[in-house]
Amino acid sequence: MKMIGIGDSGIENLLPQYMDWIEQSAVLVGGERHLAFFPQYQGEKIPIKGGIKPLVEKLQLETRNVVILVSGDPLFYGLGNVLAKKLAIEIYPHTSSIQLAFTKLQESWQDAYVTSVHGRSMKGLAQKIDGQKKVAILTDETNSPNAIATYLKAFGMTEYDAFVAENLEGENERCRHFTLDEMENAQFYPLNVVILKQRMPVQLSTMGIDDDAFIQRKPEKGLVTKKEIRVLSLHALELQIDSVAWDIGTCTGSVAIEMAKQAREGQVYAIEKNEYDLENCMQNQLRHRADITAILGKAPARLDEFPDPDAIFIGGTGGNMEELLEVCVKRLKPNGRIVINLATLENLVDAQRIFKSLHCDVSFIQASIARSKPILNLTRLQPLTPIFIVTARKIQEMEGEHS
């Protein structure tokens, strides 16, 4: 069974050997656009549409000679990676659309950040590309160049100009330069690649964004996890670049936003019971270029809408600590971490007891921090409320669960 990459030029740029394999095959599999390049084909044609699972099951039983046609490089955001795990297959790539687009732009692409919004959500794109000097994006009809421009403008990412390459190697090939405003209002063919280039460098935020940089509830300012506590808590979570993380009681979203910047290839989910605070969280996401999923509710309600996490931050329990921690530990992946901030000794004792009963390894620190504050021509220290930062690591599955 062979998989052959093909471009929009059809048979024009296929090697003679590839043409021989296609002609000698009994079954030709591909998208309807690819199959249309071979109107004289004598064997059975199977169009790829709908789910991949039925196709895999059919091909696993196939004893005839099969050739599968896919766009560009099958292992570059293509079917090759999926089918190679299920079938005995030989793969022969064509030039990828990304390579072709950079060729048209006459730019190197080894230093580009490459991602895809083709057939997937644009959620999280902001933190993925923030600070990248050169970005290539595979698109689709929904996540079009227009939609990408609107998205980037919403997050204030106006340091980018765009290059859009359409119908590469096809009859209606077209390549154009745009500002984001221009790209938002232009018309495009469905098959295209977007390349973003920074017009100017941007200053990236480091871990520990200043408290005053977040929009907060007024007149009750201060409902934000303080920068120093936030940094210690994030460190305790041990987030990886692709972690799935929850922020329970997100309020202004300060912790969730910093989570997203650390786990920029992962996913961050937040829940907040106060509608006004949630609105602030949404505004802070745009301000700080972090695109997370934030919903209204009081945990543990609605947590079943989130995927199982690698890490959970809890800023407050809302008076139902035992139920909340039981749900969180049950959903947490093995060796995952929960970090909870507590202000009272009673809650610290309860948290330790509950976590230990749920087969977690528990440790905590007390953070007593004071900030310098000028007084006339002198300086004094102004203390923050002391906080217990409790870390629980799930060391085994709860009774009745399976790994």
Q: What are its keywords?
A:
Methyltransferase, Cobalt-precorrin-4 Transmethylase, Domain 2, 19 strands, Rossmann fold, about 30% helix, 7-stranded mixed sheet, alpha/beta, 5-stranded parallel sheet
What does this structure look like?
With 403 residues, the protein is α/β, with parallel strands linked by helices. It has 3 domains: 2-95, Tetrapyrrole methylase, N-terminal domain (Cobalt-precorrin-4 Transmethylase, domain 1, 3-Layer(aba) Sandwich); 98-198, 2-Layer Sandwich (Methyltransferase, Cobalt-precorrin-4 Transmethylase, Domain 2); 211-394, Vaccinia Virus protein VP39 (Rossmann fold, 3-Layer(aba) Sandwich), CATH 3.40.50.150. Helix content is 28%, strand content 26%. The protein has 13 helices and 19 strands. A 7-stranded mixed beta sheet has the order 13-12-11-14-15-19-16, sandwiched between helices. The chain has a 5-stranded parallel beta sheet with strand order 3-2-4-1-5. It is elongated.
Describe the structure in brief:
This protein has 13 helices and 19 strands. With 403 residues, it is of the alpha/beta class. The protein is elongated.
* Count of discrete domains: 3
Distance between the termini: 36 Å
The main pleated sheet reads as:
7 strands, mixed
Helix content: 25-40%
Number of helices: 13
What structural class should be given to the helix and strand makeup?
alpha/beta
Enter the CATH topology name of the largest domain: Rossmann fold
* Strand fraction: 25-35%
User: What is the CATH C level class of the largest domain, in words?
Assistant: Alpha Beta
What is the general shape?
elongated
- Total number of strands: 19
The CATH architecture category of the largest domain equals: 3-Layer(aba) Sandwich
Regions with little confidence, pLDDT below 50 for 5+ residues? none
Averaged pLDDT, please?
Answer: 93
